[in-house]
Amino acid sequence: MATNLTKSLEQKGPLSAPNPQRQPVLKLDQLRVGYGGRALLPPVSLTIHPGELWVVLGPNGSGKSTLLKTALGLLSPVSGTVFIPQTVPVSFVPQRSHIDFSFPMRVIDYVADGLDRSWSFLNPLLRLKHRDTLLQTLREVDLEPEKYKPLRQLSEGQRQRAMLARAIISNPSLLILDEPTSALDIRSERSAFELLHNLCCHRQLAMMVVVHHLHAVAQKATHFLLVDGDHQVVVAGASEHVARNASFVGHYGVFDPCPGQEENDDTHSDETGGINNHA
After folding, report:
1. What is residue 7's three-state secondary structure?
2. Which pTM was predicted?
3. DSSP state of 106
4. What are the E-state strand segments in 6-122?
5. Which residues contact 135 (CB under 8 A, 6 or more apart)?
6. Is residue 270 over pLDDT 60?
């Protein structure tokens, strides 16, 4: 049922203003995603810059995960293009159900695996060299006290933070997360998005996050991407602009732009992540 989210957007925390002059980390140009040559959604066009937190919304089975997998290169596009500069490192946090936490591994070892992509026989002491980075990353996600615990002894919230730490230890510029809070209660979900918001600010990370519950993240998002395959809808852009779109209002209700925020009409500019409405 649609509800009023005015208060949520008014309480949006301060996020370091993204600089549109900086190099984009991801650009989708008329991208159609799907299987067997059949598109699930209308074309998607958007541009993501450092410091932006994009929240991907839509009903179950609407094409959200398919869109992420295509952006990551795990699926071929039906048409259109995905552009990620070669200089942009990318990390991905999959859905919780894809990870087996019964495996006998300590938290510190699991997180350190995020560094192993750089390991080689020519550099066997990589983990020792980056021990300070490892401990700092655990502190960022508030897991340092649990660093020697087996993964299976962690709570759901702690497991999610371990997955996040493993993804950010390699210092990515773009972090993509597929339903990172699906197994969490409301309080833990809000805490998780507070952590993501802080990482986005302090590291100037660009993030693309699939969520189900808008209330938990409404005040943290800089941009929304609404997809709905059943109704052939794609709406993408700055959160205060997407919030006024009729398709968005039909799904999530009405809320107003942040008080005092300067209006910028980017509704037709793909270069700045404008709105693409294919209702």
Report:
1. helix
2. 0.79
3. B
4. 26-32, 34-35, 38-39, 44-48, 53-57, 79-83, 90-93
5. 144, 147
6. no
| Main-chain dihedrals φ then ψ at residue 81, nearest 5 degrees | -135, 150
Of 72, 40, 25, 33, nearest in space to 273 by CA: 25
List Cβ neighbours of 273 (8 Å cut-off, separation of 6 or more).
46, 47, 48, 49, 52, 54, 223, 236, 237, 238, 266
The length of the chain in residues reads: 279
Comparing C-alpha atoms, which of 112, 64, 114, 62 is closest to residue 90? 114
Residues with Cβ < 8 Å from 204, sequence gap 6 or more? 16, 50, 51
- Residues 130 and 169: their CA atoms lie apart, in Å, by 10
Q: Is 94 inside any structural domain?
A: no
Domain membership of residue 254 (yes or no) is yes
**pLDDT higher than 80, residue 130:** no
Are 187 and 80 found together in one domain? yes
Please check whether residues 198 and 269 belong to one and the same domain. yes
DSSP state of 150: B
Provide the token pair at 260.
């005092």
pLDDT band at 97, cuts 50/70/90? Answer: low
